[in-house]
Amino acid sequence: MSDVSRILKEARNQARLTTLDYAEQIFDDFMELHGDRHFADDGAIVGGIGLLDGKPVTVIGVQKGKNLQDNLNRNFGQPNPEGYRKALRLMKQAEKFKRPVVTLINTAGAYPGVGAEERGQGEAIARNLLEMSDLKVPIIAIIIGEGGSGGALALAVADRVWMLEHTMYAVLSPEGFASILWKDGSRSVEAAELMKITAGELLKMGVIDKVIPEHGYFSSEIVQMMKTNLMEELRKLEQLDVADLLEERYQRFRKY
Hints:
The protein is α/β, with parallel strands linked by helices. It has helices at about 5-10, 20-25, 70-75, 80-95, 115-120, 120-135, 150-155, 175-180, 190-195, 200-205, 220-240, 240-255; strands at about 30-35, 45-50, 55-60, 100-105, 140-150, 160-165, 170, 210. It has one domain (about 5-245): 2-enoyl-CoA Hydratase, Chain A, domain 1, CATH 3.90.226. About 45% of the residues lie in helices and about 20% in strands. A hairpin with a 2-residue loop joins strand 2 (about 45-50) and strand 3 (about 55-60). The chain starts with a helix and ends with a helix.
C-alpha cells in the first residue's frame, strides 16, 4: 500500500477522535451550544465554549458519527447550510466577547442535497469565508480527518491552519477528481498523488502551518500536543493588535 493510499484510508477511519472528543479532552468545562436561529440545529456541525488555560475559547467543528445510527444523525459529517450558519453565529458571538476561535475539520464536503441547495448552501459557505476573513479575534483551524472542498474551507479561513499527520485537505475528493479527469473514480489513489493533499506535501507548499504527529487514534500524546500547541499559538496571536492580525490573515491567503 502506498503512503498516499494509507493516508486516505486513515483519514477516513471511523475510529478517529471526533470534534466532541477533542473538545471535551482539550478544553475544560466545554458547553455545547445549538441552532442557527433561522432554521434548525444541524448535527453535522457542533460548537460551544470551553476553557483553555483558564481562558474562554469558542470551539466549532464538523462532527462525524461513531456508528451507523450516529452517522445518520450527523449526516455522515456533511453539513447543511444551517450548520454553517450556526458556526457563523458562534464565531460572531466569539468576536463580540473577544474569545479566540478554534475549528476542527473532518468532512468529505458540504451536503449536496436539493434541500441544502434550496436553503442556500453556496451562500452560507461564501458568507463564512467573507466573515472569517475579517473576524476580529484569533482563529486556528485544525484538520482532524478529511478536509474536503468548500465544506472544509468554510471553517478554515484562519490565522493558522494545522493538520494531523495522517489527514487530507483537498479541493474535492480524490474519487471526484478521478471521475472528472478520467471518468473513472477507481483511480482515486492516482488522483490523490497528483493533487498533493497530504499534510507533509501541503506544509512544503505553505498551504498549512503545522503538522501534528500521530501515534494512534486514541493517543493521549496527540491530545496533549494539540493542547500545548494551541495555548502557545493563541498567546502569540492575542498579542497582535486587531489591524495586524487581520492584515497577516489577509496576506496568508493572498500568497496563494
